[in-house]
Structure formats: C-alpha cells, structure tokens
Design brief:
Elements lengths: L26 H10 L2 H5 L18 H18 L4 H10 L8 H11 L8 H12 L13 H9 L10 H9 L10 H24 L5 H4 L5 H11 L5 H31 L4 H6 L9 H19 L2 H23 L9 H6 L3 H13 L3 H12 L4
Helix pairs in contact: 1-4, 3-4, 3-9, 4-7, 4-9, 5-15, 6-8, 7-9, 9-12, 9-14, 11-12, 15-17, 15-18
Amino acid sequence: MLQPYACQPEDSRGRLHAESMSTFRSPFQRDRDRIIHSSAFRRLKHKTQVFVEHEGDYYRTRLTHTIEVAQVARTIAGALGLNTDLAEAVALAHDLGHPPFGHTGEDALADLMQPFGGFDHNAQALRIVTRLEKHYAGFDGLNLTWETLEGIAKHNGPVTGDLSYALAEVNAEWDLELHTNASAEAQVAAVADDVAYNHHDLHDGLRAGLFSEEDLMELPTIGPCFEEVDRLHPGLDPTRRRHEALRRVFGVMVEDVIAVAQNRLVSLCPESADDIRAMEGPIIRFSKPLYQNLKALKSFLFTRMYRAPSVVEERRRVTAMVNALFPLFLDDPALLPEDWQDEVARAADRTALARVVLDYVAGMTDRFAIQEYHRLLGSDS
C-alpha cells in the first residue's frame, strides 16, 4: 500500500506523446523497463566509476554502481511506503548522461562546451531519454512519464539560475517545475546514490591498495563498524572482516535515512506528492550527525582515493584524450560516423555542431574513446 504522499501511478501526469496504457505494467514500471533496454544503459557497462573501465574486473563500473543505487532506492522507498518502481526508474536513469572517464570526462567536456551552452551529466541524461535514443516509431527518446523526467532533472534538488541548453530545451517543451523539490521517490534515488558510492568506493579503494583498514579505523562510523566485527568475530579472515565491517557501514546509512524520513513524515504530515514538492527542503536525507561523519569520509576519499597519485595520472591522461577528440570532430565533422552525418547537416552554426559532437563524444564508452583516440591521432599519441 502506497502512502498518500507517494507518487500514485494512476495520478501520473502522463507522457509527452500519448500512448495507450499497458495491460500489465504501471506507467513507472514501463519507464523502468525502457531505461533498462536503452542503448545508453548498456553502455554504462564500459564507463568509469572511479577507476577507468580497463583497470580491473573487480572495480565498480558506472553500470554496477547504477544497479547498486537502484537496489538501495527500492529498499528505502519500500520501507517508507513510496512508489518503488518510480524510485528505481529514476535511480536507473540518474547516470545515463555520464561521458567516458566519469567525472574527469565530465569536467573536460564542461570546459570544452562552455562557449556552446555548457554540459552536465544530469541534463545530458534528459537529452538521451527525450531525444537521442531513437528506437520507437512514434517519437524520439523513450517517452518517459513526467514524474520520471522530473526525477532525473531534480533528484539533487531544485534547479535554479542559468540552465544548460540540454535542460532548458526539455523544460521548454514540458515544464518540469524546476524551482520545486522533486518527489520523495526521486529524493530517495539521490540519497541512494550517496549510500552506494560511499560504500563501494571504500571497497574499491581498499582493493586498489590506496588505503588500509587501519586507516579507516580512524574515521567516525567506519571505525566502530570494524570494532564491532572484531568483537563479535575475533580473528576473522581479513577479506571477510572487511566485508562484514563495510556491510555494517552500508546498513548504518540506510537505517539512518529511513529513520529520519519516518520522523519527518510523521511531523510534517504531507498529504500528497505535491506537498513533498512544496516543502522548503528535502524530506529524504541523512541525520545531521551522520551527515557530518560522511563529510569526514568524503574528505578522506577525496585525498586518499580521488586525488591519489595513480588516479591523478590517469585523470591527466584521459583528460588529454577528451581534449583532443572533441576539437578534432568539431573542426572536421566528416570524421563522425555516417549515421551521424544527417545531424551534422542539420547543424545551422558552430554551436549546433558542437552539440552534435558533444552527443557523440559523451556517448562513448571508455574503451571506445581510447580506441578512437589512437585510431585518429596515432598509436604513439
């Protein structure tokens, strides 16, 4: 049973292009399935989370991260009486717009696109699901419901100020009410993202040897979880000890979010999904004490993992690749594949052409970007 403040499938604002209802799936289940079957979703398999895709089979990729986010989102949404299908759909779509090489690739493309309307991965995800996926006879994109599009656009909070062209175009076609909060389900997807990467980046950093369990013992929340495992299971095999401790960290985060949300929902008594949207701030969030502890964790990961010398060197290398590929295609669009030449022909000016090039480069996987770089610029580059 869904709570009154959940997004009810029967009350969905529908799709931009009218379609008949499915006989056995709700609108949000249909959205979820279309996202899973999209080309962009499949490409996440070979896109960076922290480590470049080819660096090791055990590290998270953007796809495995997305699956973990979706699992957490379903758990939290179910515990709160929210629509698990919508929360899952937003979680599955939230990183579709990421370019190759993760946030490093995003930073490089944001700099390159500054003269042409900007770039960020959330706006690019909307562009993918409304325009770039071209599989259906009646429309471009996936024709997702308003609620799923809203969640992709606003899961990190209201969007104010200057909009990137990709977000502005979608919002002009269908008002996503960017000044308000997102639904509780989309807020759940955002917090699930934090839970997932805080948890799995610890796993991946340990596996990569960037820090040790002893280093983590000094951190709030993390250290006590290791201490509990040592108390309950003295002499445990190191691999099992690590897993047992970090799954407790995972549990602490999820249980904290659920408890805070339950208390706030009881206190504020929202009666509809629009009541959630109209609130001053998010209703789904960490408690203040845990939020402070996670800030300490993020600071640790930033120093010891995201800016570790080996990671910084890889960032430098892949940034150079993006910085070389983008202007190469922009100056000579004939290098783009044949099936992109119609888009090139429709580009009325250099800004429009830059946006075509962006769509192509941002859609690359890590391995394809590396292959194209060496193919077009030489193996010795």
